[in-house]
Amino acid sequence: MQAAGRFVADTLSHLVDTVEVGTNLLDIDAEVRRRIVEAGATSCYVDYHPSFGASPFGHYICTSVNDAVLHGLPHDYRLVDGDLLSLDLAVEVDGWVSDSAVSMIVGTPADSAAAEADRRLIDSTERALAAAIHAARAGNRLGDVSAAIGKVLKRSGYRVNLQFGGHGVGRIMHGDPHVPNDGKPRRGVRLEPGLVIAIEPWVLATTDRLRTDADGWTLRSVDGSRGAHTEHTIAITEDGPLVLTARADRIGVPESALLPSS
Questions:
Q1: 261 occurs within a structural domain
Q2: What is the mean pLDDT of residues 150-179?
Q3: Is 14 within any annotated ligand binding site?
Q4: Which of 25, 31, 79, 191 is positioned for an S-S bond with 63, CB 3.0–4.6 A?
Q5: Is 2:236 a contact under the CB 8 Å cutoff?
Q6: Would the annotation count 178 as a binding residue?
């Protein structure tokens, strides 16, 4: 799964470096499609149609803006200064999948208070992810991972939604076990070497309730407050957790959980 992880990480890093004020969400989608085609990889999203989706997703990446936090369907929208953008990408390479997400503030917003609130949202999800990775060790329980996420998010003052969270990853994008963003330590599935999970803390500023947009996919806060979402795909090994989707910025990734650069 390392090849899929590297592809997802490199693509998200490229987007973080190149997305700017004026970038159209459809151009982001087109760039991801180009990279997938050139690499001979396969999108996990284009034909994805779970029970909660109104129709097949039909695009190559999730682009969630401001009060949208999950499953953002790319559409004809040009980013403006201060937008809070979350990018979520899952790709299959040679039959194996990796999944990751990153949130960023677009441009250099003039409203410093709003930007600081957004940075706090993003930072909380990144710290929650790092705590969860630290807990993702063979012999621990899935509840240890979930509890680590919930502890950071709740101490930061946010409410935690348990409807959507992390998941098992392998030959498919979404598999067992479900990884809630809060839980009780020492409960749940025992973590064994060979298990691969996507851990994905996300929060909304002032609520934990979501509504589905008219496009049948995009999930937004019920009160219009903004959200952030961070995710990595983690392999449980005898020597500790390994982050298969670690980017060059290493955000949310403990040093001990990095793959060798080769």
A1: no
A2: 97
A3: no
A4: 25
A5: no
A6: no
Locus of tokens 């997703």: 57
> For the whole model, what pTM was predicted?
0.94
Is residue 88 a known part of a binding site? Answer: yes
Residue 225 resides in a domain? yes
Domain count, the chain: 1
Instruction: Give the separation between CA 205 and CA 207, rounded to whole angstroms.
Output: 6
Counted residue by residue, the chain has a size of: 262
Instruction: Check the annotation: does 167 bind a ligand.
Output: yes
Establish whether 17 is an annotated binding residue. no
Residue 262 domain-assigned (yes or no): no
Query: Is 231 known as a binding-site position?
Result: yes
Cα–Cα distance between 258 and 155 in angstroms, integer?
27
Q: Which domain does 6 fall in, by range?
A: 1-253
Among all chains, which residue has been given the structure tokens 């959200």? Answer: 227
Residue position matching structure tokens 């004809």: 76
Tens-place pLDDT, residues 51-63: 888 889 999 999 9
Determine, yes or no, domain membership for 122: yes
At 233, give phi and psi (nearest 5°): -95, 125
User: Domain containing 177 — which CATH number?
Assistant: 3.90.230.10
| 99 known ligand binder | yes
